[in-house]
Automatic annotation (TrEMBL):
Pfam families in alphabetical order: Methyltransf_11
Residue ranges constituting the Methyltransferase type domain according to the UniProt record: 40-132
Protein name stated in the entry: Methyltransferase type 11 domain-containing protein
Top-level division of the source organism's lineage: Bacteria
Record-annotated membrane-spanning stretches: 196-214
Keyword tags: Membrane, Transmembrane, Transmembrane helix
Organism of provenance: Candidatus Roizmanbacteria bacterium CG09_land_8_20_14_0_10_41_9
GO molecular function, one term: S-adenosylmethionine-dependent methyltransferase activity
């Protein structure tokens, strides 16, 4: 990652959310060695590809109007959803085509979350890993395509139904980081109204950023299993 990208990430309104996701990715990939090729569903500009650098065949699929993430190195999808996908919701891949399947912060935007997970499992080989991140508490975003929020009980039920064994359920953040995330989401929406609001948001942003960093310590002092903002789930197909 370039120095500019690193700096943008460190001062981003979304810093705390990305920090937790990156830290959990590093921990999971250190503990479990994913083998074979990999498909990233809803990959966008592949912001987390570099963390899978030991996988030589990292592929991604998304719509041609995919969201770009300016805080990470930019790449583009290898495959694009065609018009029929919106109706069929069937991935354009063979059964067991990939060694692993991942999806980061996409599940809530899918019209049928159950179908998306079942398709991820279908295209993954037996013994392969499925890595999914999805929100538990989050503001409305990418409207009108924002449909669901999830709990661990949902993941336990759906993955068991499709014969997958859950290896990790990681809850990201706690009370204070959740508050920090929601406050920064509000500030982002405020800044997007017009230029005047944007410049005013820039002026008042430093305390918001400081609260994000402070919440890292506060989360450790006041942990919670009930209030947090995101999940990372790792499962293995039987």
């Amino acid at each position: 990652m370039s120095t500019l990208k690193q700096f943008r990430l460190l001062i981003s309104p979304l810093f705390i959310a990305r920090y937790y996701l990156i830290e959990d990715l590093r921990a999971i990939l250190k503990k479990y060695r994913l083998k074979g090729n990999l498909i990233d569903i809803g990959c966008g500009s592949k912001p987390y590809k570099n963390y899978f650098s030991y996988i030589g065949n990292y592929r991604g699929i998304d719509f041609k109007t995919f969201s770009r993430n300016k805080d990470f190195p930019e790449d583009k999808p290898d495959y694009y959803f065609n018009h029929s996908y919106v109706k069929s919701l069937v991935l354009p891949f063979r059964d067991n085509q990939f060694g692993n399947a991942v999806s980061f912060q996409v599940l809530e935007h899918h019209a049928d979350a159950n179908r998306m997970i079942s398709e991820m499992i279908r295209v993954t080989k037996s013994g392969g890993y499925l890595l999914i991140s999805a929100p538990f508490i989050a503001s409305l975003h990418e409207s009108p395509h924002d449909y669901c929020r999830f709990t661990e009980y949902y993941f336990q039920k759906i993955l068991k139904k499709y014969h997958c064994h859950i290896l990790e359920i990681r809850k990201q953040g706690s009370l204070f980081s959740t508050i920090a995330t929601l406050l920064c989401d509000y500030l982002n929406a405020f800044a997007a109204k017009n230029r005047v609001f944007y410049f005013f948001a820039l002026m008042i942003f430093p305390p918001f950023l400081l609260f994000q960093y402070s919440s890292l310590l506060l989360d450790r002092l006041f942990p919670s299993d009930e209030i947090f903002f995101n999940y990372v789930i790792l499962a293995r197909k039987k």
